[in-house]
Specification:
By secondary structure, the chain is of the alpha/beta class. The chain is about 45% helix and about 25% strand. It is globular.
Length: about 300
């Protein structure tokens, strides 16, 4: 088994198509097919079934995917360690950030880091808090940036900023001029919520609990996967939401009203960076963290 075979297997498994995988890997279709066939032959296992014009992972292939990902991540970490032995801060840094962090807080800090360390290649994936933690745990990200707490995790967590949620509603909403709200108001509203697993959702649910409420008691129109989607929905006038105060400029640009929570304990949260305690932290990662702490 070679790393090239693992890389080819994962690409085919992700795309479910040999031709598209070959194009993405800059290889011929026959070379990709040969690599998969050699891997299957060497280990006496069938990893893919042909289904019509496409292919599908067998049960054995599905089982092998997470191990293959972990193996490739370890190889990439080894390459980073070797690159880190040089005198200069260089190499690559794989980041995964939850959406609010990635949209409003992280970009200027990454630009400042790039200006100081142009030899470091940065890549950023965006998802929610749970996905960021999983990426760091699996080794597909060197650092993860999240909102809120991370229960029951072996990952190293360091707070790097503070945030809070605010109520967002259309200026045409019947409660737009209201300054304070009760639990009964919350039950009467139609809500747009961020998806399960997001830091915004977990902090909002903690805010509800402080008001003696649960999300199940609310009238929820939609769970949405991004702040922008929530803002667009609130802009139609019929629903309300709670989002980071860092999204306030975008909300005001859409003509929305903002209410900072004064009728209950402020729904505050930290922004934190995650790293794996058992993996090598490169010079590039240390430089980024130092820049964030200083800035």
């Amino acid at each position: 088994m070679t790393l090239d075979q693992i890389r080819i297997f994962l690409c085919v498994a992700e795309l479910r198509h040999v031709t598209r995988a070959a194009a993405q890997l800059n290889m011929t279709q026959s070379a990709v097919s040969s690599a998969i066939a050699a891997l299957e032959r060497q280990h006496g296992v069938r990893l893919f079934d042909r289904v019509g014009r496409g292919i599908a992972l067998t049960q054995e292939g599905e089982t092998f995917v997470p191990t293959a990902r972990a193996l490739l991540a370890q190889a990439e970490t080894a390459a980073l360690v070797l690159a880190d032995l040089s005198v200069e801060t260089r190499g690559s840094l794989r980041l995964f950030a939850s959406q609010t962090v990635a949209s409003y807080w992280l970009p200027p800090r990454l630009m400042r880091f790039h200006e100081m360390h142009p030899e470091v290649t940065l890549s950023l994936a965006v998802g929610n808090t749970a996905q960021a933690a999983a990426a760091v745990q699996e080794g597909t990200a060197d650092l993860g940036f999240i909102e809120g707490d991370l229960p029951d995790s072996p990952l190293r967590r360091q707070v790097v900023a503070r945030d809070e949620l605010v109520l967002v509603l259309s200026r045409q909403h019947p409660a737009a001029r209201q300054k304070a709200f009760t639990a009964q108001d919350y039950r009467r509203f139609t809500w747009l919520l961020r998806e399960e697993g997001s830091g915004t959702r977990s902090v909002f649910e903690a805010h509800l609990a402080a008001m003696g409420l649960r999300a199940a008691e609310l009238s929820v129109a939609l769970d949405l996967p991004s702040n922008e989607a929530v803002l667009a929905g609130v802009g139609t006038g019929g629903a309300v939401a709670m989002l980071s105060h860092r999204a306030v400029p975008a909300a005001r640009a859409r003509g929305l009203a903002i209410r900072r929570v004064t009728w209950a304990q402020r729904p505050a949260r930290p922004f934190a960076v995650l790293s794996h305690p058992e993996r090598h932290r490169t010079r590039a990662a240390e430089a980024l963290l130092e820049g964030i702490r200083a800035g």
